[in-house]
Amino acid sequence: MTKILFIILNLGNENDNNLRIRATIGKSFREPIMNELYWTPGGNINLKPEESVNIDFGILYSNISNTAELELNIYLIDIKDRIIWLPTNNGNWSSSNNHNVSSQGIEFLSSLSLIKSSLKINYKYSLSQVLKKNKTFEDDITFN
């Protein structure tokens, strides 16, 4: 991933609670692999690279003694020309990249260190949504 923008802000000091804010915006691409291009039958030499834009924002809080941490992350990934394999009319599968996909979600993480950091309790919750932004065929039930 090529990072276009990366920001970290530390709010607080050694004698205070620590709050960090992080933001990242980047662009990525993935070239088709050999199987996707040349597999017989089904390879597609006309495939384009997948391209994506990734946006991530997070807040991390830790107390003075670093025994407790809370973290909240929000992300969005927008993919253009995603490469997938689809069945053809003759029963074979073929690679194509006519899909545009958007993934978004939030993550919540917490941790608590006990007994001089020899025991740590972690909790993580994730909620994500993936949306297909175009139809593959007329009655495509996976289109959002």
Describe this structure in a few short sentences:
With 144 residues, this protein is mostly beta strands.
Molecular structure report:
- With 144 residues, the chain is mainly beta.
- It has one domain (2-132).
- Helices cover 3% and strands 64% of the residues.
- It has one helix and six strands, in the order ββαββββ.
- A six-stranded antiparallel sheet has the order 1-2-3-4-5-6, with no helix packed on it.
- It is elongated, with a radius of gyration of 21 Å.
- The two termini are 27 Å apart.
**Helix count from the secondary structure assignment:** 1
Please compute the radius of gyration using only Cα atoms. Answer: 21 Å
The SSE order reads EEHEEEE
Gross morphology is: elongated
CA(first)-CA(last) distance:
27 Å
Beta content comes to over 45%
Side-by-side strand order of the widest sheet: 1-2-3-4-5-6
Q: How many strands in all?
A: 6
Helix content: under 10%
